[in-house]
Amino acid sequence: MPNKKSIITTPLFDKHYAERVRPFPKLQKAFLNALEVFEEDIKDPLLDTHELTGAMTGRFAIKANSDLRIVFKETEDKFIFSDIGTHEQVYLR
């Protein structure tokens, strides 16, 4: 069943997308493919949707490819994409 919540991005997500994804066509394609799947079913096994812990409690992550992660929060009416990058870039700050 398609997701009815809107997706918004934070300024940090936009900045990191511009730096880490936009310059690389393969990463752009991986992101767009993951976004399409996410919009249909956020729990699709291809995304490996998982809840984060520790300093990132309250957020979730999906895999756009083997190393590209999208971090997000869910509210009643929207998903907020807050970061994008490799595992090390988004988790080890």
DSSP helix fraction: 25-40%
Largest sheet: 5 strands, mixed
Strand residue content: 25-35%
> Mean pLDDT, nearest integer?
94
Rg is: 12 Å
What structural class is derived from the secondary structure elements?
alpha+beta
Unreliable spans: none
Distance between the termini: 35 Å
Instruction: Report the CATH architecture.
Output: 2-Layer Sandwich
Oligomer: single chain
Number of strands: 5
The overall number of domains is 1
What does this structure look like?
The protein has 93 residues and is an alpha+beta fold. The protein has one domain (6-91): 2-Layer Sandwich (YaeB-like fold), CATH 3.30.2310. The chain is 33% helix and 28% strand. It has a 5-stranded mixed β-sheet. The longest helix has 16 residues, at 25-40.
Protein topology:
Elements: E1 6-9, H1 11-20, H2 25-40, E2 50-51, E3 60-63, E4 68-74, E5 78-86, H3 87-91
Parallel strand pairs: 1-5
Antiparallel strand pairs: 2-3, 3-4, 4-5
Summarize the structure.
The chain has three helices and five strands. The protein is an alpha+beta fold. The chain has a five-stranded mixed beta sheet.
Keywords:
single chain; globular; YaeB-like fold; alpha+beta; five-stranded mixed β-sheet; 93 residues
